[in-house]
């Protein structure tokens, strides 16, 4: 199978940025009380798991949920990110892989997170990715999707002095909700946070649940 160009460039860019990214955003979750509260709610919903953090980056979200007692694993394209994630979270399994080809059997997970990771997936590939999420979730399992709100992508060719090739696809919550509905999910909550002064966009989190009968669709 030939790897899409956007996967190759996203991996290479984050391999280049991994160390700077991990340092710059080391306390990011600690500074976001709303996100911590929502993740705590998610942890209560999924119980002891298992849960997969897809596009886990340096593993900070996985580490937060693990500390709450969730049986969680991480998946990411970038080996450099995974090196950091494993060093910071020795009790969590982190694997290299793509959300376009999840290796897990159907119904493996009680929960799945795509925390600012769908932003690098082109619109035309989103139904495919959501179908993969649906497949690996148990009936009644929960899906967390977070993304920047907007209508136009942000293209980044330079970050902190490094040459990169990244496209950040901003989307509207109702657009994502329609895709989730078509993929066999019910949206249980939509939360939109307005930007802080230093931020460029609003941020949305959608919590969805796999319909118990959707495997029959």
TrEMBL record:
One annotated GO molecular function: methyltransferase activity
Keywords: Methyltransferase, Transferase
Presence of the UniProt keyword Cell membrane in the record: no
SUPFAM superfamilies xrefs: S-adenosyl-L-methionine-dependent methyltransferases
GO biological process, one term: methylation
Residues annotated as domain Methyltransferase: 51-141
Gene3D superfamilies reported for this sequence: Vaccinia Virus protein VP39
Record-linked Pfam families: Methyltransf_25
InterPro entries (UniProt xref): Methyltransf_25, SAM-dependent_MTases_sf
Keyword Methyltransferase recorded: yes
PANTHER family: TRANS-ACONITATE 2-METHYLTRANSFERASE, TRANS-ACONITATE 2-METHYLTRANSFERASE-RELATED
UniProt-recorded name of the protein: Methyltransferase family protein
Lineage: Bacteria, Bacillati, Actinomycetota, Actinomycetes, Micromonosporales
């Amino acid at each position: 199978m030939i790897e899409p160009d956007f996967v190759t460039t996203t991996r290479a860019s984050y391999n280049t940025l991994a160390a700077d990214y991990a340092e710059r955003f080391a306390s990011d979750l600690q500074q976001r009380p709303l996100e911590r509260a929502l993740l705590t709610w998610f942890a209560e919903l999924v119980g002891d798991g298992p849960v997969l953090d897809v596009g886990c980056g340096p593993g900070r979200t996985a580490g937060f949920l693990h500390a709450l007692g969730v049986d969680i694993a991480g998946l990411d394209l970038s080996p450099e990110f995974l090196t950091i994630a494993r060093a910071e979270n020795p009790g969590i399994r982190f694997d290299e892989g793509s959300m376009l080809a999840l290796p897990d059997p159907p119904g493996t997970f009680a929960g799945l997170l795509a925390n600012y990771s769908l932003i690098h997936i082109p619109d035309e590939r989103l139904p495919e990715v959501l179908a993969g999420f649906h497949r690996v979730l148990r009936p009644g399992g929960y899906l967390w999707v977070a993304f920047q709100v907007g209508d136009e992508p942000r293209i980044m060719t330079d970050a902190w002095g490094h040459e990169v090739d990244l496209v950040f696809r901003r989307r509207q919550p109702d657009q994502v909700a329609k895709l989730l509905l078509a993929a066999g999910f019910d949206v249980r909550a939509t939360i939109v946070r307005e930007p802080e002064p230093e931020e460029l966009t609003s941020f949305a989190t959608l919590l969805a649940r796999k319909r118990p009968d959707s495997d029959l669709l």
